[in-house]
Each structure stands twice: as structure tokens, then as C-alpha cells.
Write a structure and sequence with these properties.
- The protein contains 3 helices and 2 strands; from the N terminus they run αααββ.
- The chain is mostly helical and 183 residues long.
- It has 2 domains: 70 residues, no CATH class; 69 residues, no CATH class.
- Strands 1-2 form a two-stranded antiparallel sheet.
- Strand 1 and strand 2 form a beta hairpin.
- The longest helix has 44 residues.
- The chain is elongated.
- This is Stage III sporulation protein AF.
- InterPro entries: Spore_III_AF (IPR014245).
- Keywords: Membrane, Transmembrane, Transmembrane helix.
- Pfam families: Spore_III_AF.
Length: 183
């Protein structure tokens, strides 16, 4: 009850101080600003107990948090939480690397399709690039499959003879540079 009485005294003192300052001002232009400041001062006085209650609650929460941290360290006794965090980070990193590899392969497939269609003047049905990630993190292309759009059966090439079946090409050490300079 004593705290309520002290708070009420503070409110009455703030209102009296605001009224006294308002009466002492000689002109109207300053009264508006002083009334604004006095009103804010009265509101602050009214909110004083609420602010002190919040501050007291925060102190209790902070003390409880510090006590909990002292009882239970971040990594635990054996560091199991740290190991779990590190394992999760590795898993996320591997997923990110796999996504980056998929994006690189998709970009390479699109570029190969565009170059073949432009340079060889043929329609490409699909391009499939097989790539594997090396130990050092680089992406190594293992195979490239290009499917061309096959013209209707019975149509002969420019020479007048039917197009022969294309043999499978296996990768070798020898490199051949095409018209476009890619090899």
C-alpha cells in the first residue's frame, strides 16, 4: 500500500509542476510546446510502476538465464551438441554442393545444346551431361550424350543416299578441335 501512496504522490507532484509551469509562461506560442512536454512528463510518471515491474521481471529472467547457463554448458560435458551442430553443417554443405553441381550441369547442357545447334546447323532433341564431383570439390565431366532430332524416315541426305546409323563414340585421349574451336 505504501508503494501505491508513493506513486500517487509522484503523479500529483507532476500534475502540479505542469500546471505551475503552464501558468508562468507569458505567451501562447510557448504554451503549446510546454504543455506537450508536461503531458509527456505526466505520462512517464503514470507509467513508472509499469516500467519498474518490467525492469524487475527482466532482472529475474536474466538471473535465471545466467543460472541455467552455469548449470548446463553449451557443449555439454562430452561436446555432443557441438558434434550435432557440426554434423548438421556438413549435411547442409553437402546439399549445397550437390545443388551447385546440378546447376552447373544444367548450364553446361544448355550451352552445349546452343553451340551444337548454332555451329552444326542441326536440331538437338536433348543433351545429357554426366559429371562427378572429385575429392578436391571440382566437377569432372564423365560423359556427354547429344540426341539429335531425326528427320523423317526415307529422306536422304544431300548426297542422295540414306543416312547410316551413327556408331557410339567412346572417349579417348586424342582431342579434335571442331570448327568452333571447342575441343
Amino acid at each position: 500500500m505504501e508503494a501505491l501512496g508513493g506513486w500517487l504522490r509522484q503523479v500529483v507532484a507532476a500534475v502540479l509542476l505542469a500546471a505551475l509551469i503552464d501558468l508562468l509562461l507569458p505567451n501562447r506560442t510557448m504554451q503549446r510546446y510546454v504543455r506537450l512536454v508536461a503531458g509527456l512528463f505526466i505520462l512517464l510518471t503514470l507509467a513508472g510502476p509499469l516500467l519498474s515491474w518490467i525492469q524487475g521481471d527482466m532482472d529475474a529472467k536474466l538471473a535465471a538465464g545466467i543460472e541455467w547457463a552455469e548449470r548446463e554448458p553449451v557443449g555439454g560435458e562430452d561436446g555432443s551438441q557441438l558434434e550435432a551442430i557440426m554434423a548438421e553443417a556438413k549435411r547442409i554443405g553437402a546439399g549445397r554442393d550437390e545443388q551447385a553441381a546440378q546447376l552447373a550441369v544444367a548450364g553446361l547442357e544448355a550451352r552445349i545444346k546452343a553451340v551444337v545447334e548454332q555451329e552444326e546447323d542441326v536440331k538437338v532433341d536433348s543433351v545429357k551431361v554426366s559429371a562427378e564431383q572429385a575429392a578436391d570439390g571440382t566437377l569432372a565431366v564423365e560423359a556427354v550424350q547429344i540426341r539429335l532430332v531425326v528427320p523423317e524416315a526415307g529422306i536422304a541426305a544431300e548426297g542422295g543416299e540414306p543416312i547410316a546409323e551413327v556408331k557410339t563414340v567412346s572417349p579417348g585421349r586424342r582431342r579434335h578441335r571442331g570448327r568452333n574451336g571447342y575441343g
